Amino acid sequence: MKTRKAKEQIVKELKEKFEKASLVILTNFDGMTVAESNKLRRSLKEVGAEYKVVKNTLMRYAYPGTPVEQIKDAFTGPTGIVFAFDDIVAAAKALKEFFEEKDSKLKFKAAVVEGKVADVEMIKQLASLPGREELLGQLAFTLKYPVNAVAWSLDNLFQKLVTVLENVKAEKESA
């Protein structure tokens, strides 16, 4: 049994996570094995997200004043929480894969994305977006393209100039 001080520390940490997380998803993990739970934790950790299971009574002390308060009615039964702080798309993708596994017992309860309540369809749409790395690659290409276009145009211009000068030289030599 945890001491009052330990419980207060858990509530404080949860409140901080509820305030900082860009994505908070509540799940029902009823019937999951320890191996499945560990697999879920690993897949989320790989993308910078976190999965926690805490008693609902402690969560009820942590959510007041945070965006998670909007989904307080979902804190019933066995509840696991997914926290994503940076790359919410990657976390949504990892969770979606887990939801869609053949024998997955993990169930969606509720979610808050960037301070707004979201349903399972919104999480699936979020998971279908390009990830952070892909978006950064697209941005790099977009920033690089104009520079490449100017370089190509200048190179093409110089080639045309050389061709014109060679034609002028050939005309003067033949005259």
Features:
2 domains, Alpha-Beta Plaits, 175 residues, 6 helices, single chain, alpha+beta
- CATH architecture heading of the largest domain: 2-Layer Sandwich
Q: Main beta sheet: strand number and arrangement? A: 5 strands, antiparallel
Strand order of the largest sheet: 2-3-1-4-5
Fraction of residues in β-strands: 5-15%
Give the tally of structural domains.
Answer: 2
| Global structural class | alpha+beta
Low-confidence stretches: none
Mean pLDDT: 85
Please bin the fraction of helical residues. 55-70%
**Number of DSSP E strands:** 5
Instruction: Say what the CATH topology of the largest domain is.
Output: Alpha-Beta Plaits
- Provide the gyration radius in Å: 27 Å
The CA-CA distance between the termini, in Å, is 105 Å
| Number of distinct helices | 6
Shape: elongated
Q: What's the quick description here?
A:
The chain has about 180 residues and is α+β, with helices and mostly antiparallel strands. The protein has six helices and five strands.
Describe, in plain words, how this protein is organized in 3D:
- The protein is α+β, with helices and mostly antiparallel strands.
- The protein folds into 2 domains: 4-129, Alpha-Beta Plaits (2-Layer Sandwich), CATH 3.30.70.1730; 131-175.
- Helices cover 58% and strands 15% of the residues.
- The protein has 6 helices and 5 strands.
- Strands 2-3-1-4-5 form a 5-stranded antiparallel β-sheet.
- A hairpin with a 2-residue loop joins strand 4 and strand 5.
- Helix 1 (4-20) packs across helix 3.
- The N and C termini lie far apart (105 Å).
